[in-house]
Amino acid sequence: MGFDDNNLSENALQNVTIEGRKHLIVTGVLEVSRFDEDEIVLETVRGTLSVRGSDFRMERFSLDTGEVHAHGFVTGLDYETDEPSSGGFFSRLFR
Which residues contact 60 (CB under 8 A, 6 or more apart)? Predict the structure, then answer.
């Protein structure tokens, strides 16, 4: 999914809230791509968001409001974007 931060409207905000590593609330969700007990993958207004953990269960999902509420134990979050990589540590060091 490609996106451009400069073209986002004021209404295209996204928030991620984790309460006690057990309750997850994500706004700005366009689609739930994957949901199982170990991973949640969401298409959001800011890119693809992967949430890793265990024992996930969906509490609420509203396409109208773009909100996902889930319970489980969160161990990590990653955003995937279509932006090109600027290289690793050594490529930046030896420019």
Answer: 67, 68, 69
**DSSP secondary structure string for all residues of the chain:** ----GGG--TT----EEEETTTEEEE-SEEEEEEE-SSEEEEEETTEEEEEEEEEEEEEEEETTTTEEEEEEEEEEEEEE-SPPP---HHHHHT-
- CATH code where residue 70 lies: 2.60.40.2000
Domain count for the chain, please give it. 1
Q: Is 93 inside any structural domain?
A: no
Residue 94 is assigned to a structural domain of this protein: no
Please give the distance of CA 27 from its chain centroid, rounded to a whole number. 9
Q: What are the two backbone dihedrals, phi and then psi, of residue 92, each rounded to the nearest 5 degrees?
A: -75, -35
What the block records as the tokens of 62 is: 């509203």
In tens, the pLDDT along 3-41 reads 444 444 445 789 999 999 999 999 999 999 999 999 999
**pTM confidence score:** 0.73
